[in-house]
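hey so i finally got around to running the thing on that chain from the lab meeting. sorry it took forever, my laptop kept dying and i had to restart like 3 times. anyway pasting the input first so we r on the same page abt which one it is
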Amino acid sequence: MIRLGINVDHVATLRNARGEAYPDPVRAAELALQHGADGITAHLREDRRHIRDEDVKQLRALPAPLNFEMAVTDEMVAIACDLKPHACCLVPERRAELTTEGGLDVIGLRDHLAPHITRLLQAGIRVSLFIDPEPEAIRTAAALGAPVIELHTGAYAAGKAGELERLHQAARIAGEVGLELHAGHGLTYENVTPITKLPHLKELNIGHFLIGEAIFVGLGPSVRRMKDLLS
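ok and heres what got predicted. didnt touch it at all, straight out
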């Protein structure tokens, strides 16, 4: 069974639009877990545009794994080592972007990443690197000692030709070098099934589509339908 992580960032986006205390991303996380989610993902951005520090503290207290998405900065690594979530997913981050636009440049940033990955691992945190489906990036991730990679599926979700085969090749390489494989970005009911066929896939992290679908059908049914598709 492929695990399903629910990203609750955009519940916080809606809350912050009015500066109110609702809707509460922690309540959304609790509801998602009640309806079959296997874990919760939240991205604490440098500018705190959606998830806030208090949110991640409350999410960490839930009886489920927290996947803490974060930029590779001294501030975020310190927060993660104090928080000690189940996992940290290291992602690229630009203030001007609407959403994460691509994978982490693990090759160009190798020397920068290495000490931060070591520090997180020593704190007992499972480290995941969010990367594009590039063979050399996957091999570099393994060399850096990160036990998990999450493949960026955004180009596939946008309909780019040949992207599904690239993802399959990347998944095979991940298996060969002993990495646990996750994937996510832009996945919907309509495009997720081919991704579930990737070899060695253990987990998908999905947020924006399911939060949007919840407006029409409710969060519980939106999560349950996605969970059914993964099975």
